[in-house]
Write a structure and sequence with these properties.
about 220 residues, mainly alpha, about 5% strand, elongated
Length: about 220
């Protein structure tokens, strides 16, 4: 098996630190420091940074370093709107066709996020919540829908983990009740109720982000 290219190693190492909330929005990173921590030259690190810039996580500032991009609340709303539209569409299809949901997968993700909430592991909590919702789309076996979800999953994960790290460390993990309720109604094949729960959650999320000052995060370091 060929060795993994250094640029791929650098990309994954930096990306994971972003998703874990170790590099928060507004942080200014140095190519030299990153190369030193990764024990490699700046060339693969620079290539990795270029890819992360395309992904929308960072921005290279001329002669200043690499800025971890600020959280744009409107972008977050737009991504949630898109994914929620996919969930609702999928649930509509369940009402019309005999699709089979993988209830075991739902339960696995629910158990994992419940455990993560008890142990205060933010990334695992939010990531398993997103994967729980992805399971709704998987039932349709529509690769385009799954790829659309995957395109935005990590960006949402980065935003919500960063938000919790900066603003909500002491807030309870209230989302697990929503996932448990959705799981319950899906087991009963009550897709209409599941749709109502998702739409209500969307409204509550919008209100919570505004109430907790999420928008301020995008301007804190301006």
């Amino acid at each position: 098996m060929p060795d993994v290219p250094l640029v791929d190693i650098a990309y994954q190492e930096i990306r994971q630190k972003l998703l874990n909330g170790q590099y928060l929005p507004g942080s200014l990173l140095s190519e030299s420091d990153l190369a030193g921590k990764l024990n490699m030259s700046r060339t693969p690190v620079r290539a990795a940074i270029s890819q992360l810039e395309k992904d929308g996580f960072v921005e290279t500032l001329n002669k200043r370093g690499v800025l971890v991009k600020e959280i744009d609340v409107q972008e977050l709303y737009d991504m949630f709107d898109l994914l929620n539209a996919l969930y609702i569409y999928a649930l509509d299809q369940f009402d019309e066709h005999a699709y089979e949901l993988d209830l075991e997968a739902f339960k696995t993700y629910l158990d994992r996020l419940t455990e993560a909430s008890a142990e205060k592991r933010d990334r695992d909590y939010y990531e398993n919540g997103l994967l729980f919702m992805r399971t709704i789309l998987e039932a349709l076996d529509n690769r385009c829908m799954e790829q659309t979800f995957d395109r935005y999953k990590d960006k949402i994960l980065f935003f919500v983990v960063a938000h919790r790290s900066m603003e909500g460390k002491h807030r309870p993990y209230t989302g697990k009740k929503l996932y448990a309720d959705i799981y319950r109604v899906l087991c009963d094949k009550n897709y209409r109720e599941a749709k109502l729960m998702i739409l209500e959650s969307k409204r509550n999320l919008r209100e919570e982000l505004l109430r907790t000052g999420f928008k301020a995060i995008s301007h804190r370091h301006a």
